[in-house]
Specification:
Length: 434
């Protein structure tokens, strides 16, 4: 019994009882854990051995990194700046377009102003005289055409009853009807659609007035900025070059000279095409004995060349209207000639003149007009060709070109191209590539 009690009181060693299961094995404290802090996070070397519960991996008690609030504030500030810049750009889009038009207008009159300044005239006075000449020519042209158009409209209104009688007589004789001019006029005057049209026109007078005033203000803005750009051209170039190193200054000056040359060439080509178009249409109008043939020829030449996109339609509508007062068939003849000449100008005359004066490919000129119209509408179509010509000439100085070698015969080229292929195929069949 003593032996038995002694055996029970003796503790069992691992050797006697075997390995202790993992579930019953007591957890050993970590070497990096401080005494009395079982389960605490390990101490890191960066913390100098004094790590706490908040310095460990992300957990319920983890703290936010110090850089995260600043990063969030920076992202929000950048987004706010982007939105503000986008809003400001859209609000100033009209002003930027006006500045672009004024800049190209100043480039167009730059040669004339420079020549007058070289002869001893002050640059501001020279610019004023050039603008005055352009303004006098434009006002005279508008007044001449306005008086002509007003006279034709008055004549058409006076002859409208006769035209209506002729049309009604043709309808009665063809369809065996009994229409009368008085009945037609009475039905038109008392129709609902005419009354609605008059009411809508009366309400739209204010919109038309606002549009006219806005157009005048826009024209004044463009003229003012163009005057400053042309009069202070040398000072503006010096101001731009003063913030650039000498190498960049030469590039800016060269780009400015190229822009002046290309814009002048573009206006020269447009003026030449306007002259040819005016002469051709004058011959047709004189043959058809259309009233005001010289003024109509000038109208067609200028409007079709210097008003993009819709200039051709505006140029052909007025001669057709005036020819209709003489003979309705003459209006069809004028329409046919306008369409035929427009095709001749687009596919024969304009590509050749543009290639010589602006020095760009006709396809590039046509594509630039389409792209400019898509971006800025009529303004983009007007300035697209000189802008692309300037960019092409400026970038062409940095492109290194090489002479094209003579092409070898087709048989020799094919043999040379096929020879290495057969050699590689033969090497691939041999073991080891030998």
């Amino acid at each position: 019994m003593a032996a038995t009690d002694e055996t029970r009181d003796t503790p069992e060693t691992p050797d006697a009882r075997g390995p202790v299961p993992a579930a019953r094995r007591p957890a050993e404290p970590d070497r990096d854990t401080l005494p009395g802090q079982a389960g605490a996070a390990p101490r890191t070397a960066a913390a100098g051995g004094a790590g706490g519960p908040g310095d460990g991996p992300a957990g319920p008690g983890a703290r936010m990194p110090r850089w995260l609030p600043r990063a969030v504030v920076l992202v929000l500030a950048l987004y706010a700046c982007f939105q503000l810049g986008t809003w400001a750009f859209h609000q100033l889009m009209g002003l930027l377009v006006n500045l672009l038009i004024a800049f190209f207008l100043a480039l167009a009159i730059e040669p004339a102003v420079s020549r007058m300044a070289a002869r001893g005239m002050r640059r501001g006075l020279a610019t004023f005289l050039v603008f005055l000449a352009v303004l006098v020519g434009a006002v005279g042209f508008v007044v001449l055409l306005g008086s002509m158009l007003a006279g034709q409209i008055i004549e058409m209104i006076a002859d409208f009853p006769r035209y209506l009688d002729d049309v009604i007589g043709s309808i009665n004789s063809t369809f065996h009807t009994e229409l009368s001019r008085l009945a037609v006029q009475d039905s038109l005057l008392h129709s609902d659609w005419l009354q609605k049209y008059v009411q809508n026109s009366a309400s739209g007078v204010l919109d038309v007035s606002a549009t006219v005033l806005g157009g005048m203000f826009k024209l004044l803005t463009i003229t003012l900025f163009a005057f400053y750009f042309a009069a202070d051209g040398p000072r503006l170039r010096r101001a731009l070059c003063s913030v650039l190193p000498p190498a960049r200054q030469a590039e800016v000056l060269r780009a400015w000279e190229i822009a002046v040359a290309k814009t002048g060439g573009y206006l020269y080509s447009r003026g030449l095409m306007a002259l040819i178009s005016g002469i051709a249409h004058y011959v047709v109008f004189a043959v058809l004995d259309v009233s005001y043939a010289p003024a109509l020829a000038v109208w067609v030449g200028l409007v079709s060349q210097f008003i993009p996109t819709i200039g051709t339609y505006l140029a052909g509508a007025l001669p057709m209207l005036i020819a209709f007062t003489s003979n309705p068939w003459y209006a069809l003849y004028v329409l046919g000639f306008v369409v035929v000449y427009q095709q001749f100008e687009n596919y024969v005359l304009q590509p050749k003149l543009t290639a010589r004066t602006v020095d760009i490919h006709p396809a590039v000129a046509f594509g630039s007009v389409i792209a400019g119209t898509a971006l800025l509408g009529a303004v983009g179509a007007l300035i697209a060709i000189p802008a692309v010509a300037t960019l092409q000439a400026f970038l062409g100085a940095y492109v290194k070109r090489y002479e094209v070698t003579e092409e070898a015969p087709a048989g020799a080229t094919a043999a040379r191209a096929a020879r290495p292929v057969w050699r590689r195929a033969g090497r691939a069949r041999r073991p080891g590539g030998r």
